[in-house]
What does this fold into?
Amino acid sequence: AQSVTQLGSHVSVSEGALVLLRCNYSSSVPPYLFWYVQYPNQGLQLLLKYTSAATLVKGINGFEAEFKKSETSFHLTKPSAHMSDAAEYFCAVGGTSYGKLTFGQGTILTVHP
Amino acid sequence: NAGVTQTPKFRVLKTGQSMTLLCAQDMNHEYMYWYRQDPGMGLRLIHYSVGEGTTAKGEVPDGYNVSRLKKQNFLLGLESAAPSQTSVYFCASSAASRRETSYGYTFGSGTRLTVV
It folds into this structure.
């Protein structure tokens, strides 16, 4: 069985500040890990994914995430927030049959001017 | 280059009515999925399909049926809608993968369903 916990349903930062969105996972098999972003009234877009290669993964829009097996974590970071980063972010874990993903509850990121 | 297309985008149903949501993908993906999104609960898997003519239950299948008669289409049906089925429904597709791998999904833009 797999599960994902995103710590903090809402995160608020100032423009230019560090963004840190937390994700912890549980998996009985080597995990494949994903971060998706959802802008208002849109579908989910892939930000980045970890597939057992490099533990530091770079994604689109300046985001990156680090896979830490010992901590079962895959936190998402961005050095400097932009107003356009305001959205809901979902962490997901896969690696079981038929490519199925299990999603976390989501974190809403608010960016203040 | 449409990707995954969902129709309709919005729908209001009365309790007890039926409807079908259509998902179409043009990427020749083998796997297709239906999720529902509710506030604070993330996305939960309703049903999925690993190929034409096959379907399987996900985490929350009750009250829904699906069909995949053509590889590019995956239909989600509500036979008798209930207010608890008010949600945003997302379809996603993925290339076929070996066991214990995941390539990630391409998502549609969603269908917002309200049952009154």
Observations:
- The two ends of chain B are 36 Å apart (CA to CA).
- The mean pLDDT of chain B is 93.
